[in-house]
Amino acid sequence: MMNAIKNTMKELDIFITEQNIKPKDIKGELKEFFHIFSDLTDYRFKPFTTYKLENLLGICFVMAIMGKFTSFYNVEQYVKLKPTLFIRLGLVEKDKYPSNDTYSRLFSHLNNSEFSNIIISRIKRFYEKVEKYQKTSGRRMLSGDGQVVKGTGRTKKDEKSERSINILNFYDVSKGIVLCSKPVEDKTNEIPVFQSLLKTFDIKDAIITADALHCQAKTVETIIANKGDYCFAVKENQKSLFDMINKIIDKRHIDNEFGYSNRDYKIIKLKDGEITPEWKGAKSIVKTVSHKREAREGKVGEEMLFITSLTNIDEIAEAIDKRWEIENGLHRFKDIQLSQDKIRVRERCALQNMATMNNIVYSLYRIAASVLHVTPQQAKIIYEDNPMGMLKTICSLMIGNNFTMLVKKNMRGTKESKK
């Protein structure tokens, strides 16, 4: 199989290895990184403002790096009991520590789009530089999926219980960047929110995947209208489509049959009129049998059906194989390594901003994994008790021309060593 789906993170790992870049080579000023937050709009009433916005966000950022950003009360108590690191970073003064309410007010009024973009835009530009140096190929892949924050649920004896809040993540699989995290009332409400996000973000030439819930005629119409492609699992929530695909597979010749990544593929290229017209852009149907759980747990291979606007078999196979990276990579890391599942905050804006902080930290850990040649989980272990290490190395790559200058320096060193 060709690399049909762009994997910029893998290219970064290869590039760092080829250039022999070491963490000790990366230098930067911590104050430069925290100063990025000063560009955000501060909605607080100035006469009553005691702490700088950039310092408050810097404190929460450090807590998120350590996987301890689960509540504002936890942040308050941690800084009070272990202030040394925060004093050293210039984020607080001795015996002058922000309260739980100070953090809560800030996160409840922070503009989420502005907050997300302030760092994510820098990470995007960083990856664009990597793609420029590596001349990466392949198509972007974007995935949408909901993530329940279990700690937000409430069980009450005398009152009505409150469900845990679901957050819909829109994830750039190719770069390991979360484009948006949006709280939704329940699972079914993901559908219109996802459709809205597809119109908000640039999806031109991207391959869109999501779970079977999002296999909706209006969703595929939105994707095609915005010049993207899709590959969706089809289950019995779309009974007529499910039955239609099964009938076609039973009576039609299989155009392509092969195995890839412990999964068997049968692909049929659709003829005009074979699928009802509401499924805009549909060009292929796919039946897969996955042997992954079979090999691991001794269970019978799981069969699945897909509908897609793709015809390239490499793109189809990789899109199907990578469709759960959002859950197995992003969601698992945020829940287990960053303790997002333990967040108890129910106020929607504050919760969205807390999830966004974790998104930023997740992307930085993905970069750290490439620099250190370890997994993101191992990078978390290395830096969770040494956030200064993360701030001095990985975060410094996001500042100005630090990465470009480092690359040029290493390239000069490589040329000189060959003389």
Could you walk me through the main structural features you see in this protein, from its secondary elements to its overall organization?
The protein has about 425 residues and is an alpha+beta fold. Helix content is about 45%, strand content about 15%. It is built from 17 helices and nine strands. The two termini are about 40 Å apart. Mean pLDDT is about 90; it is low at about 415-419.
Structure at a glance:
By secondary structure, this protein is of the alpha+beta class. It contains 17 helices and 9 strands. A hairpin with a 3-residue loop joins strand 6 and strand 7.
Features:
419 residues, alpha+beta, nine-stranded mixed beta sheet, 17 helices, 9 strands, 14% strand, disordered C terminus
